Amino acid sequence: MATPKFSKPTPNFHQELKKRVSDYFREKHLSRYGNSPLYLKAGIIVLTFILLYVHLVFFTPYWPFALLECLLLGAMTAFIGFNVMHDGAHGSFSDRPWVNKLAGLSINFLGANVFMWKTKHNVVHHSFTNVEGVDDDLNARPFLRLSPTQKKFKIHQFQHYYFIFTYSLLYLYWVFFTDYKKYVTKKVGMVPIQKMNLSDHISFWSFKAIHLILFLVIPIYMVGFSQWLIGFAVFGLFAGLLLTMVFQLAHSLEETAFPLPSPATNSLEDEWMIHQIRTTANFATDNKLLTWFLGGLNFQVEHHLFPKISHIHYPAISKIIKQACGEYNITYLEHQKLRRAFLSHFRHLRVLGTA
């Protein structure tokens, strides 16, 4: 199966939106990349992660405090992903390529692999958002039915009750299974990954070994197997839940579209920019603290339209995008409150499980 094609861009909207965003950066004399506040935030999050790890492993506190620190370590893992790795892998963290590469490599220390991530996220998800059979982010079979075109199983009638537990498995499943599956099959879903050179192979196996040493061997040696197992489960499950929920609240909602290509032409109805707007939604964009921790990923519309712009600029360019959508009669999807996005996702799962 070949990847689908998009319709030709509507020149007025596509070109006008790109022009307005470009004009904004030119007129404000701003760089599209990160800045000092972003680098300070990244430093705070990474340092907090390191301190929590050291305290847990080498100065293990009384068990209630240790469990709390495991939760915080899981949160910091997600926040590194949102604020450091994500911008770095998209090339927007810094105007210096080596800094972006270093930021992207943060995911390798956490057990995943940036090479595989770039294919899954940058290439597949960002190109074919919510297209069943192509966008691998929709693939939670057989446990969840996320798209109306996916096959329904009896278990799905209960998915709106157990989805949080399933989401919490993401990080552990990703680190210990899916990366290896992509490596062996050389595919992300139906899309082949870029050919790996020798350094990519060395990087893959070296960082996997480093992760095993840091998160399995040393902790087990220091605290024992049973304490490690409980702590690692709490850490990994909480990280997985945070990582998954942020992306699901942006794409798997009642309001978002799940387009399919025409069987005759293998073409999607909309041009790429409009496709992104129809399949993506924002949430809680007025919550500055949430925006800070999530690396602006509650501004998913802005991120999908301009992935090479750092998330620090999303609040500003969202005003430009909203205005353009209004002028061109394009629905801009947004939930003002986090709970409303969560309820929309809950109802989406319930309908797909019972309809």
UniProtKB/TrEMBL annotation:
Ranges that cross the membrane: 38-59, 65-86, 98-117, 161-180, 201-222, 228-250
Xref: InterPro entries: FA_desaturase_dom, Fatty_acid_desaturase
Record's keyword annotation contains Transmembrane: yes
GO molecular-function terms, A-Z: oxidoreductase activity
EC assignment: 1.14.19.-
Domain of life: Bacteria
Record's keyword terms, sorted: Membrane, Oxidoreductase, Transmembrane, Transmembrane helix
Ranges where the Fatty acid desaturase domain occurs: 63-334
PANTHER family on file: DELTA(5) FATTY ACID DESATURASE C-RELATED, FATTY ACID DESATURASE 2
Protein name, as recorded: Acyl-CoA desaturase
Native organism: Cyclobacterium jeungdonense
